[in-house]
Design brief:
Blueprint: H1 2-8, H2 14-20, E1 49-57, H3 69-77, E2 89-97, E3 105-112
Parallel strand pairs: 1-2
Antiparallel strand pairs: 1-3
Length: 113
């Protein structure tokens, strides 16, 4: 990064280069377009669970625009749930309007059945 800054700003002071050079993070694995692999589920995550997604927004969305697919896959991949098949989960998606000073967010509630 320091060499890039020195090239971009050839008249920069050493102090500027020192303050603005950062070590670039190294990725653990390269990004790709392949589907997520099967994650190993942790102890205690077996059995059927009910997952409720609550979308809290300033402006409500059309019901078909509340998409939980990627989050559900991430929960499976992280081992929080053992799978997203119909015999392993029940799924509920709701939404409500945010209160005046409330931030927009999505709550994920997981209950063991």
């Amino acid at each position: 990064m320091k060499n890039d800054l020195a090239t971009t700003f050839p008249h920069a002071s050493p102090d500027f280069l020192a303050r603005n050079s950062r070590k670039v993070a190294e990725l653990e694995c390269p990004a790709g377009n392949a589907p997520l692999g099967k994650g190993k589920s942790k102890e205690g995550t077996t059995g059927r669970v009910h997952i409720r997604f609550v979308s809290i927004r300033k402006r409500l969305l059309d019901p078909d625009n509340i998409s939980e697919k990627w989050t559900l896959d991430a929960l499976r991949f992280a081992g929080i749930i053992c799978g997203d098949e119909p015999d392993k989960i029940t799924l509920e998606t709701t939404q409500r309007k945010a209160n005046k000073n409330e931030d927009e967010k999505t709550l994920i509630e997981i209950y063991k059945l």
